[in-house]
Amino acid sequence: MDKTKEKMIPIPIDDLINGMTTPVDLYVRLSETKYVLISKEGSKTQKDRLSTYKDKKLDYLWTPYSSYYKLTRQNIAIAGVAVGKSQLNQDLKTKFIATAANSVYEQLDQIGISKETYENVRQISEATVALVQNHKEISQMFMAFEKYGNHLLKHSMAVSAISVMLAYEMDWKNKLTLEKISLGGMLHDIGKLSLPKTLFEKPKALMSFEELQLYETHAFRGMEMITSLGVVPDDVVSMIYEHHENSIGQGFPRRLRDVKIHPMAKVIALADEFCNLTMKAPNFPNPLPPTEAVIYMDKVMGQPFNKECYRALYRMILKDSIKSAS
Ligand SMILES: [Fe+2]
Ligand SMILES: [Fe+2]
Question: Going by C-beta distance under 8 Å and a sequence separation of 6 or more, which residues neighbour residue 199?
């Protein structure tokens, strides 16, 4: 087993073609610092082995940052976003993104989601974090979270993780879809960065009409900010724009009904509300336990979310609460 302190880059297994000579060492990731070398530089990939990894639900192999330049392919693509070699930089300005990613474990624990549940989707989250870190434009935008303090960043990471878990629970196993959802979760509230921080410190119920109107612009603002980058897939843009729509047509900004809402945005919307109810925030000091939050969404809020997504959340939380009680 190799221990490495070097930063590693995920290579989607789908990018590896049977019989190709790999110009880099390839590793399987066991944990944040533990990697197992499975293929030496210069060896040929084998179809059987590649499909064994797929069977084990491994979507990525990893290679050290420093040898990434040896890959003959110009780009790797995660979540439909190409990460070019020229964009990789060793300077770790974005270290805080990794720190935030690590805090996901802690948060999930707090809101009662077991590590095993997260385990299924961990690689997807890690690859998305690597994407954000390595893509200049996206990471620059993401780094603006810093000035908003910890909460918004942690919230975004938690929504991302819960969204991917929900999608997985609904049997959406397509890697690209899961990666997009992961990125959509991380970026869903990016529009808040263009509004005064103080606005979000106030509980919504105490906002004036004008403040509420301003608050509701964050979905549109986020959509515009991300569209302006020109590199993020349309699905991700839709998740940002539609994450406050709800199935009964009472969301914002467009009051879309369920059939008109992007399927991935429905997942983000539910994960967002679940995280809002279960995590402490400047405007929400007393969060609910996860099981209560799920019931609250139904009994008090009238279950305004997509039914299939809600059922998946119900199963996920119930399953975990049964486990932790036993
Ligand atoms: Fe939002
Ligand atoms: Fe949010």
Answer: 207, 211, 214, 215
Q: What separation in Å is there between the alpha carbon of 318 and the centre of ligand 1?
A: 26
Which domains are delineated in the chain? Answer: 2-73 (no CATH), 95-325 (1.10.3210.10)
Give pLDDT tens digits for 181-208. 999 999 999 999 999 988 988 888 899 9
Q: Exposed/middle/buried for 17, CB within 10 Å: 0-12, 13-18, 19+?
A: exposed
Amino acid residing at 116: E
Neighbours of 299 (CB within 10 A): 10
From 301, 302, 309, select the one nearest 258 (Cα to Cα): 309
Residue 193: DSSP 8-state:
G
Q: What is the pLDDT of residues 7-29, one digit of tens each?
A: 888 888 887 877 788 889 999 98
The rounded Å distance from CA 186 to ligand 2 centre is: 9
Cα 131 to ligand 1 centre (Å): 22
Q: Ligand 1 centroid to 14 CA: how many Å?
A: 33
Quote the ligand 1 centre to 219 CA distance (angstroms).
Answer: 6
